[in-house]
Amino acid sequence: MTTHYRPTAQYTSATAPGALPLLGHAPAFVRRPFDFVAGLAAHGDLVKVRLGPLDAYVVCHPDLVRRLLTEDRTYDKGGIIIDKVREAFGNGLATCPAADHRRQRRMLQPAFHRDRLPGYAAMMAEEIAGTTARWRDGDVIDVPAAMYRLTTAVTARCLFAAHERAGSLPVHECMNVVTRGVARRMMMPLPGADRIPTPGNRRFQRAQRGLKEITRRLIADYRAAGTDHQDLLSTLLSTRDEHGRGLSDGEIHDQVVTFLLAGMETTAATLSWTWTLLAANPAARDRLNAELDTVLDGRPARHEDLPALPLTSRIISETLRLYPPAWILSRTVAADTELGGHPLPAGTTVLYSPYLLHRRADLFPCPDRFDPDRWLTTARPAPGTYTPFGLGARRCIGDTFGTTEAALALATIAGRWTVTPTPRQPVRPQRSSSMSPRSFQATLTRRVR
Ligand code: HEM
Questions:
Q1: Closest by Cα among 311, 327, 301 to 187
Q2: Which atom of ligand 1 is nearest to the CA of 69?
């Protein structure tokens, strides 16, 4: 991939223009979050924004993003985005502070070991085939809802394979309410708003309790059976730290919920955006169809097919560039430091945005253009430029799981169906901490090869 990016020794800092009295930039951030954040790169490499009472810094330069993400003890998990997730889900791998992280990551890594992937991929393929087998020619589906159902079924199956109806556990409804609730809370910088007993907040708390009850029962069943089901929950139950200690039920609950939260919405959003991009780019869709017809000839995709489907995988990479589901994330400064020559006192919130980086024209030429072939080169993008899965010690543990799932679903569905979105207007992202498309419908047409 060609980029015009050159590392610099001098970094600029600035305050974003347009702050209102008291509210600062909060109205712009809440009303048009994506344009507001992407526009910050024009002002400097480190840009201060005021979100109501809170000052935060947005890191716009890839070198500084790399420092932010690799110096994970100085820039710890925390800040407005991560704190809201931690309040809802406890101290799981995605939210725990650096002090707990090494132990947790070491204990959970076996669940995502390369050797485990073919087993998960077989479960994914079954769930994808099962969900799409119910589709009929001419059906109209709500795409984001259908993709969310699909990734819920897959994640629940890979977590709790032994549960005979893993794919249809009420996890789906609870997670739907909880993920949307967390996403809304993250975008709401006003403190205390989530504790007001509104119907929405009560629904959120009910769903949280429901999820706790489901995982409590599953953990008890698994402990009683004492069998290794080759799924994520079995690994969580059997893993040990260097002192031979396992995870408590409370810790397992936090990890299960973390995997659900981190894995379902992200992969569903990726797939939903892919359908809009393919519909708007018929030439890319035709080439994808040709690849799928040659390799699959109408059958569902399997894990071993993926190396023969390079365009499928480039389409996923390009979708993640244009619409990174985890589009904005935060850190908190653990001890006084400097970034790019700018002093940052302990307790400062620092934000980074894969969306902002991915839309910089100096990093990705014609950044708004869907061009899967920009990934044809074997050169990897410079660290800190392409970050849909983050970077450093806190990089996504489920990156290969997620891209495998997305590639299998895209290949299986596109091999058999043409998905034609019905809206005439381009689909817009929801204003949320996860970049998911607003609800839109599409007609399914069975492909004739
Ligand atoms: C396309 C799909 C996915 C995307 C775009 C994505 C994105 C991310 C990003 C950006 C981070 C880093 C967050 C930060 O820097 O604060 C992250 C971390 C994480 N993700 Fe993913 N993710 C995906 C799929 C998954 C899946 C399928 C799972 C699990 C089944 C998962 C589990 C996690 C966990 C546990 C962490 C925390 C890792 C740590 O701090 O050690 N993700 N993800």
A1: 327
A2: 15
Q: What is the pLDDT of residues 132-177, one digit of tens each?
A: 999 999 999 999 999 999 998 899 889 888 665 555 556 777 777 7
**370 CA from centroid of ligand 1 (Å):** 23
Question: Of the candidates 121, 422, 426, 446, which has an alpha carbon nearest to the alpha carbon of residue 289?
Answer: 446
Residues in CB range of 224: below 8 A, 6 or more apart: none
Handedness of CA 319, 320, 324, 325 (dihedral sign): positive
| Contact criterion met (CB below 8 Å) for 435 and 323 | yes
C-beta of residue 261 within 8 angstroms of C-beta of residue 178: yes
Calculate ∠ Cα 353-78-189, nearest 5°: 75
Residue bearing the bigger pLDDT, 117 or 85 = 117
Confidence band for 280, pLDDT divided at 50, 70 and 90: very high
421 CA → ligand 1 middle, Å: 28
Express each pLDDT in 358-402 by its tens digit: 999 999 999 999 999 999 987 888 999 999 999 999 999 999 999
The chain-wide mean pLDDT, for the chain, equals: 90
Query: In 60-178, where do the E strands start and end?
Result: 75-77, 140-142
pLDDT digits 0-9 by tens, 112-128: 999 999 999 999 999 99
CB 346 within 8 A of CB 335: yes
Q: Which residues are 339's β-sheet partners?
A: 342
> What does the block give as tokens for 215?
């995982």
Ligand 1 mutation pick, 158, 259, 396, max ligand atoms within 8 A of CB: 396
Contact, 361 vs 367, CB < 8 A? Answer: yes
Give the integer Cα–Cα distance in Å for 126 and 311.
23
- From the list 348, 355, 345, 356, the residue with the least C-alpha distance to 330 is 348
SS3 of 177-237: HHHHHHHHHHCCCCCCHHHCCCHHHHHHHHHHHHHHHHHHHHHHHHHHHCCCCCCHHHHHH
Nearest CA to ligand 1 atom 1: 267
Full set of structural domains in the chain with CATH: 13-426+438-446 (1.10.630.10)
> What's the pLDDT band for 349 if we cut at 50, 70, 90?
very high
Q: Measure 298 CA to ligand 1 centroid, in angstroms.
A: 32
